[in-house]
Design brief:
Keywords: S-adenosyl-L-methionine. It contains one helix and eight strands. It is mainly beta and 144 residues long.
Amino acid sequence: MNENPEVSERIEMVPVGYVENDYLEPVYNEEVYSKVSKIVLMQEFTDGLYRIEDFEKLYILFYFSKSKGYKLIHRRRYDGEISGIFASRSPYRPNGIGLTIVELLNVEDNVLHVRGLDAINGTPVLDIKPYIKETEQVDNETTD
């Protein structure tokens, strides 16, 4: 924990791979959720894909490398409502991290073929995690 709030902690990450698809510009397009993309992992991470085919869906965490700057209050793209940045899926964020659930179609060596990735060609992929419906799904929870 940072004891001095005026000192900013730096975190360094390296991409595990990159996105390959036909989307070249960061524009909102619902069509992207039905398209197939490739995630090409760096060769040294290929062994990390062992048994990834046990899962139908994956979380993909990626870096919005072309999005510059952000506003804490803005208009959401999907419904036009004004909201805070943390109540939206805008790519213009303080840390530029994207998160999407994709359908895993198949794996060839170090390449994942996925459907529904809303990242543009060349986007750095930071991490891949399995989506496990039984542990992720929240059923009508109530609080007393």
